[in-house]
UniProtKB/TrEMBL annotation:
The lineage of its organism: Bacteria, Pseudomonadati, Pseudomonadota, Gammaproteobacteria, Vibrionales. This is Protein translocase subunit SecD. Keywords: Cell membrane, Membrane, Protein transport, Translocation, Transmembrane, Transmembrane helix, Transport. Residues 410-572 form the Protein export membrane protein SecD/SecF C-terminal domain. It comes from Salinivibrio proteolyticus. Residues 223-281 form the Protein translocase subunit SecDF P1 domain. Residues 292-408 form the SecDF P1 head subdomain domain.
Length: 592
């Protein structure tokens, strides 16, 4: 005779797992409910002037903190005071002072020691800057054509043919060889077929052109590479919750939450910086100016481009002057070693190039010679760049080189700023709506289900803690205003789970079953309905996250986490409370 398993009972490991999970997620969620303090951060370069200002304004800040890097954090009572302190310090310390706005969690320090951090807030809640960038894909096509011309001219020279390949400046995608005969042109066609099959001869343009399919693919790739590089640059700025996404064919949208002084961010994001190394050639028409406004004649083609740079770090030389330590990849190191071995004692110039918008709004290349150094020994994959004007220039240059040169130049065409006060108002309104919704649902559950009502309330609170805790643990997750709407929605769906279960229990009690039997049958009968409803909603939420962007992804994230939390708290959590209290009640005609 088989022994029947007892109903309405969980083993000890079920309770242990539930309690442990709830404790961990509650600890992770708590810092988000304490809020944060507005902070003005000042770099160590301005300590003396800052100390003088603090003596004359003792009541301007609530607290002063120092970190291990020497940065001073001034904690202010509110956001308006934070902005006032920033403006006063700018006037006192001068334009060169590094003054940034930040936020410091108000949670107890013991929570941070446990690894609990508050949920990152999006642009609409934190305030910040939104930028719309235009990618000049024509320049990417022109760079591809210029690289092709360099290789083609080298081949022409090896074949003892006139090395006169040029790029048509009208469309930047046509390579012409005007001085070749018909037989030599057929040889060039064979070279294109072998090395650049995506380029086809166009008799109307009298040259080789890139196919339309290849042009579209290259433009798409240029935008994608720019997005990857911009993400690296923003990470270097410390804006971890920033959003970088493609918009349309050749636009990129960037959101920088918490960045209320976007000058540095715009300088770094908008810079299309790259380095190139040139030999000097007095007969070359290519001439640039150095920092002393001396004319430097450069060779026609660069020895090495910035695409071979894989690392760049700032340091100082023996005279405490700023410099950048460069590390090249394998092919770049071999090229540099081969060139410097052949040209010991010759000068080599380092050229810095960036694109800037002119008065007409067009992007034009601005090149200058950083330094001209004599090659005293063979260089490999590691060397130094000197001649920089300031430590700040060295830091910016090294950061740009580490992130990589943009494949195509970009221009900031639109800038929108959301003030921190508006973000604070959004937080207050969003969480007020969440609190009112939870209170209303709690009152309804208490009035309608009486003894089981308080179980539903505990389930709602646990559901909220689990959602916030999961959101804090999820890497890259950001809470936005639509995300708060997702929290409210999923809390309501958690109530639906309890309603379905409790109504099934009521139906069994009306049929004359005992309370213990009604509880067991009610949970079993409601499970399939709850599971099907949550799975279909989960599929919709995953699709929304996959195709959406920005706020839509924030809403989808909280919806997905909320569905998982409501399944656990509404089914497993509530039964873990009900089982030991009413699970063995054999009475009939009981009301709930």
């Amino acid at each position: 005779m088989n022994k029947l398993s007892p109903v309405n009972r969980y083993s000890l490991w079920h309770y242990a797992a539930l309690v442990l999970m709830l404790i961990v997620l509650t600890v992770q969620a708590l810092p988000s409910f304490f809020g944060d303090h507005p902070v003005v951060s000042v770099s160590h370069h301005s300590h003396q002037g800052l100390q003088n200002w603090l003596k004359t304004h003792p009541d301007a800040v609530s607290e002063v903190r120092y970190d291990s890097q020497g940065t001073v954090s001034l904690i202010t009572p509110d956001i308006s005071q934070q902005q006032n302190v920033q403006q006063q310090l700018k006037g006192t310390l001068g334009p060169d002072a590094e003054i940034t706005l930040d936020y410091l969690s108000a949670a107890p320090t013991w929570l941070s020691r446990l690894g609990a951090e508050p949920v990152k807030l999006g642009l609409d809640l934190r305030g910040g800057v939104q930028l719309l960038l235009w990618v000049d894909t024509d320049q990417a096509l022109a760079h591809q054509a210029e690289a092709l011309v360099q290789g083609l001219n080298l081949w022409l020279d090896s074949q003892h043919l006139p090395a006169n390949a040029t790029v048509n400046t009208k469309d930047n995608t046509t390579v012409q060889l005007p001085m070749l005969s018909a037989s030599d042109r057929s040889k060039a066609s064979a070279w294109f077929t072998e090395h650049y099959p995506q380029w086809r001869f166009n008799s109307a343009a009298n040259g080789w052109q890139m196919t339309d399919t290849e042009q579209d693919a290259m433009c798409h790739q240029a935008v994608r590479q720019n997005i990857d590089i911009l993400r690296k640059r923003i990470d270097a700025l410390g804006v971890a919750e920033a959003s970088v996404q493609r918009q349309g064919k050749d636009y990129i949208r960037i959101e920088l939450p918490g960045v209320h002084d976007p000058k540095q961010a715009k300088n770094v994001i908008g810079a299309t910086a790259s380095l190139a190394f040139y030999a000097l050639d007095a007969t070359s028409p290519k001439r640039l100016y150095d920092a002393q406004h001396n004319v430097v004649p450069l060779a026609r083609h660069a020895i090495l481009g910035g695409e071979h740079i894989i690392d760049a770090r700032t340091s100082v030389d023996e005279m405490r002057r700023p410099q950048v330590d460069i590390r090249l990849d394998g092919p770049g190191g071999e090229t540099m070693l081969a060139f410097t071995r052949r040209h010991l004692g010759d000068p080599m110039a380092t050229v810095y190039r960036e694109y800037q918008a002119n008065e007409q709004g067009e992007l034009v290349a601005n090149e200058r010679v950083i330094n001209v150094a004599t090659i005293q020994s063979a260089l490999s994959d590691r060397f130094r760049i000197t001649g920089l004007s300031s430590p700040e220039e060295a830091r910016n240059l090294s950061m740009l080189l580490r992130a990589g040169a943009l494949t195509a130049p970009i221009k900031i065409v639109e800038e929108r700023a959301i003030g921190p006060t508006l973000g604070a108002d959004n937080i207050k309104a969003g969480f007020s709506a969440l609190a009112v919704g939870m209170i209303g649902m709690a009152i309804f559950m208490m009035l309608w289900y009486r003894r089981f009502g308080w179980v539903a309330i505990v389930s709602l609170v646990a559901n909220l803690m689990m959602q916030v805790g999961l959101l804090a643990l999820l890497p890259g997750a950001v809470l936005t205003l639509p995300g708060i709407a997702g929290l409210v929605l999923t809390v309501g769906m958690a109530v639906d789970t309890n309603v379905l279960i409790f109504e099934r229990i009521r139906d069994r009690l009306r049929a004359g079953a005992s309370l213990a039997n009604a509880i067991d049958t009610g949970y079993r009968a409601a499970f399939s309905t709850i599971f099907d409803a949550n799975i279909t909603t989960l599929i919709s939420a995953v699709c929304l996250y996959a195709v959406g962007s920005g706020p839509l992804q924030g809403f989808a994230t909280t919806l997905i986490l909320g569905l998982c939390a409501s399944m656990i708290s509404g089914i497993v959590g509530t039964r873990a409370i009900i089982n030991p209290i009413w699970g063995r009640d054999r009475r009939r005609a009981v009301t709930i």
